[in-house]
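Lecture 7, part B: from sequences to assemblies.

Below are the input chains for today's worked example.
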Amino acid sequence: MQVARPQNLKLKRLLNKFVCVRVVKGNSLNLELFQFDYDLTFAAFFMNADRTIYGRYGTRSSQEKPESDISMQGLLGALEGALELHADFPANRKSLAGKQGGKPRFPNPERYPTLKRYTPLLNYGGKVAQSCLHCHMINAAEIELLRSKKAPLPDKILYPWPLPGALGLQLSPAERALVVNAAPASAAHEAGFRHGDRILSLEGQPILSTADIQWVLHNAPAPARLTAVVKRAEKTIRLKLELDADWRKSTDISWRGSTWPLRRMGFGAMRLEDAWDGDRKKRGLEGMALWVRHVGQYGIHRTAKDAGFRKGDIVIEFDGIRERLTESELLVHIFRKRKAGDLVPVKILRGDKRMSLRLPVR
Amino acid sequence: MTGKLALTLLLSASAFFFAGALAAEDKKDRDTLVRDDLSEMRDSDLWIYNDVEKGFELARKTSKPLLIVFR
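Predicted structure of the full complex, as structure tokens:
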């Protein structure tokens, strides 16, 4: 995103109306106050001095294009929206209460057992990059902790920060919560969302961005019934979203940095990728066909390697499942159905040869 | 550093987070890039660097809202 353009004069004008703070480290992060998608490359909060949160900004849906889900126009719209909320404060305080999260397990990331080596301050006099606690490590630390306690991983951990796409909603990254499409037969379509709707609130919370919608979804139960208020032409319309027990299931977690610990524990440190239709046709594959794109080689990352897996193998059956699943769906299956120490039967194709292997779950 | 340049740094595309965001900028090692970033941001008249509490304090004094960016 470039800002050195004439239109960015507007950005500069808007920023001068804020106190701007930039944080480049996760060390000593206040986890009660700053709850956001820790796998993001760019995240922002709009707040009042009394720590009331007006909104969040920052969304990501893929590894390849980390910032395709955000835009300068979208940020400008969110900044303007935050100023409107600030002007109405404190009369709107009640509607903003839900934007603050609950009490976290630890007050800051360094309290996690796997992050204890980090200190609150960066070591600018020494190896400063190594002293930086990256935010994606926070999710990973939570996963490691739950797994070490043999606790189940809740959906909120497995499918964090669901995108509006999980409801069938496609929003414009260049606008403030503007609906581009509601997929046919989706929860959003059934609720009555239409192209051109502007989402004003969700569960009573004012919406400045896609991240604000994700915040509501992140904290929503399954099943859930959510109330949205949208502006359509000059009308304000109330819509009811009915979400079933598996509504998070379409969420893609493969791009997330914090998914690597899941791969290490569930796949023996393999990264899998669903075969393209062309590959499937060429090889006569139906159902499950997951390319092994990466196999860890060292230390705790060599479980799959030791079990006999190689880069380039194609997984065609995993734990008795032959149906077509994405890597994300298969990971969730493992953590819902299997415990550490289990040996999972896996069938693969290596070239033209079919092989049976057994993969330990960690 | 001007606000515009600071924002360019903040919002320029990157596959990495925090210090990693600077890695592709040039051939400098990451430690140097992080230190350079600090030096440049110290002179910013727009951005407070790595000090959220200072931001809250200033917001109280000025009655402005806060924008807190994690990058």
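Note for the exam: Chain A has eleven helices and 14 strands. Keep this in mind when comparing with the next example.
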